[in-house]
Amino acid sequence: MEGLEEVLGTLKNQVRLIPFRTLTGMIAGGLTIQRRAQNLVPRDLGNLRASAFTTWSKGAKNTAPSFSNDHGDASKLNKRHTQVVAESKASLSTNEILHPEVEVGFSAFYALFVHEDMEAKHLNGKQAKFLQQAVSQGMPDVIKAIETETIIKESD
Amino acid sequence: MNPVTVDIKDLLVEKSIGEWGTIKESVWGIFIGKEPDNPTNTITLYDTPGVVGKQFDNKRHFFHSAFQIRVRSIDYLDSYAKAQACIEALDRYGKFQVEPNTSYDNIIMEDEPLALPEDSQGRTIFVTNGIAYRREIA
């Protein structure tokens, strides 16, 4: 049949690219979770919010955030951010095809305490469990991001 | 379907981990959603963000219902021991049902007790988190 070979060739190429695009979709999904969590983070100087990151084994987003030094913590936060992001990347699978992995987190040294303290008072719209809530509510967005990247595109 | 904390509270009471809503200083009081100033020794449960799982029989869903247990006491080791006792009482609890319409497949405690900063009265606080796998039944 005329054109069939061309179509099959394109399809084969598309299928071959799906595993690579899964990671791309997961990174997009991770960034969605990161943004959602940043919107829920209790704010004082904004340093906790700024310490958010999304990593995969060969890359990261938000590698050099700008921290406020009002409490004299900027240097400590910067050093820790670099270390946490590096450790996160090293902990993730390097096999981006069979085991694509993405991690979203907050590097500030007090992030865990803010996240886990359900009795702390926060302004409206801000809360403990900010990352857990972002994951809970954002899973459909993550799935959609992966689907969008892995869909077979006619234009490719 | 109850908030998961209500059912978890019943399990802790049944296992004699504490007494529901008591203000007696001689025992551990169990509370939901708000840690009271008294008694000193408290176990407070919070519903935390969970996930609605996949659908079964075309209308009902599985739920991954998350909760936190927060233990407070003057003594650091007492707080830790009580948090650990809660974990041991609940982790891998197995199947059970709660009237009128909830079936639990299991409870998994996810982490070791985490020490939070002391409260304004110098009392120690430990938290630990869990997930209950449950579904509505007819």
Keywords:
heterodimer; A: 156 residues; mainly alpha; 3-stranded antiparallel sheet; 5 helices; 8% strand; elongated; B: 138 residues; alpha+beta; STM4215-like; 8-stranded mixed sheet; 2 helices
What would your notes on this structure say?
- The complex is a heterodimer of chains A (156) and B (138).
- With 156 residues, chain A is mainly α.
- Chain A is built from five helices and three strands.
- Chain A has a three-stranded antiparallel β-sheet, sandwiched between helices.
- In chain A, helix 1 packs antiparallel against helix 5 (130-150).
- The two termini of chain A are 22 Å apart.
- Chain B is α+β, with helices and mostly antiparallel strands.
- Chain B has a single domain, classed as Phage tail protein-like (STM4215-like, 2-Layer Sandwich).
- In chain B, 19% of the residues lie in helices and 45% in strands.
- Chain B has helices at 4-14, 76-90, and strands at residues 19-20, 29-32, 42-56, 60-73, 96-98, 102-109, 114-116, 124-136.
- Chain B is elongated, with a radius of gyration of 15 Å.
- The model of chain B has no long low-confidence stretch (mean pLDDT 94).
- Chain A binds chain B through residues 112-113, 116-119, 129, 132-133, 135-137, 139, and chain B through 34-35, 44, 46, 48-51, 66, 68, 70, 114, 116-117, 127, 129.
Query: Biggest sheet of chain A, strands in spatial order?
Result: 2-1-3
Radius of gyration of chain B in whole Å, from Cα? 15 Å
Measured on Cα atoms, how large is the radius of gyration of chain A? 19 Å
Q: Could you give me the name of the CATH homologous superfamily of chain B?
A: Phage tail protein-like
Strand content of chain A: 5-15%
Strand content of chain B: 35-45%
- What is the oligomer described by this structure? heterodimer
Whole-number count of domains of chain A:
1
Number of helices of chain B: 2
Gross geometry of chain B: elongated
Structural class based on helices, strands and sheet pairing of chain A? mainly alpha
